Amino acid sequence: MKKKIVLVSAFLMLLLCSCLKADEALPVFEENVSVTVPGMDREVTLLWLSDLHIAADSAGFDPQYSGDIASRKQYSTYEAVSAQQQWSGKNADYSWESGWVQVLNRTEADAVIFGGDLLDYNCPESVDLLQDGFSLLNKQYIYARADHDMLPTYQADPDYQAAQDRQDALCKDESVMSMDFEDFYLVVWNNSTSNITESGLERIKQLAAEGKPLILATHVPIEPLNDNSLAEASKEAFDGRSLLWGYNSEYWPDENTRQLLDLIYADDSPFVEILCGHLHFSWQGMVSPHVHQTVFSPAFSRYMGVIRVSG
Fold this sequence. Notes:
The protein is α/β, with parallel strands linked by helices. It is built from 8 helices and 14 strands. It has a single domain (5-310), classed as Transcription Regulator spoIIAA (2-Layer Sandwich), CATH 3.30.750.180. It has a 6-stranded mixed β-sheet with strand order 1-2-14-3-6-7, with no helix packed on it. A 6-stranded mixed β-sheet has the order 8-9-10-11-13-12, with helices on one face. A two-stranded parallel ribbon has the order 4-5. Strand 6, helix 3 (124-136) and strand 7 form a beta-alpha-beta unit.
């Protein structure tokens, strides 16, 4: 099946409608993607938001990490947990609940994909902030976790099970999650900073067997077969590390992930587009001769993806 994928990058386009007052919301920047699914007679709009890195002051911080925490403010969204605290950090004037959630609610999108690293570290205060925003969201959404969402970093007494329990209680948290849009499936590889589980791989195979095109959402990008520009850009940004899933990169696949890569790279791949984040910069290109990939800029810099799927 032929798949036509067209990427239209539109940086610095304001999302806000002209009818909104300037003080009702702050502007964000769109990265627009068009995905063609043959046979569709309507348009589905998906929003992508990843790498927000919400960071709340935590009662459980170990003081020895205060310097590390301060150094991360350049690419985190720091939030006060009470009215008495002062805002700090890069996006002090554009928080999760009072900024991003309102922007998302004002769109007419069909669903929101939260593509991982919404949290900078997993502590009760940060998870509570995230939940407060989710409770106000008027869109259906799906949340792909990544390592920052899961790990109780900087805590004096890190409880990894408690951190997992907080995520499990937040919203659906399975190895692979999906949304059925009739003409295609949105498939989410959850916690893709780790290899895909056997059950997750089987779920993707089951969805692929139905014959509908698949759009894959994953926090960590996939290594392109015949284009090293993404790997080189990652190495430049991350001290020589290619932070991709592949055979020449930082994330080395086990047998389950190898099978997933085989599905992606295959000539008859069920995938029509891969959506991802993680790298804190934007990129678009072909993963294989048949599958396109979009890497979105981070939400902590006020970027979000707008994916329009049509026939």
